[in-house]
């Protein structure tokens, strides 16, 4: 499903199904802000500045979904707002699943993994996606990420690489 959004006179088409199961305005705003920052639109541009203001307000809400926090952390990292990034990463670290030397995030209320012989469990695409956003937030830092952040990021990368299928892809095209 696509939605037509107007952004400063520009029509933007957003694929809502790419929101990791989180369908809210904060996630949508974060997606668009990330896209604008990734194409090097400056944080001083009025559209980006206004979007970041909205995201900063939303980041202070305690009931944010883990997926939304991952998006927010990456958006703030791209914008150079390292204090907001760190606050979100600290919150996300408390919600992380840490096992076998790896780290990942999963949606609240998720069914436990099936433990079957000859079957290698792979996480749903939304969990791979949100974990990848957290990894991007850890690696996007000004100045460069600290040794501690890089060490933690390597544990995230370990989990993500373990989700690849035999052909090197993941469970979806996302």
TrEMBL record:
Domain Alpha-macroglobulin-like TED per the UniProt entry, residue ranges: 16-174
Origin organism is Mionectes macconnelli (McConnell's flycatcher)
What name goes with this protein? Answer: PZP protein
Note the InterPro entries from the entry: A2M/Complement_sys, Alpha-macroglobulin_TED, Terpenoid_cyclase/PrenylTrfase
Q: Where do transmembrane segments lie in this chain?
A: none
Q: Give the domain of life.
A: Eukaryota
**GO cellular component labels:** extracellular space
Q: Name one Pfam family in it.
A: TED_complement
| Name of the gene | Pzp_1
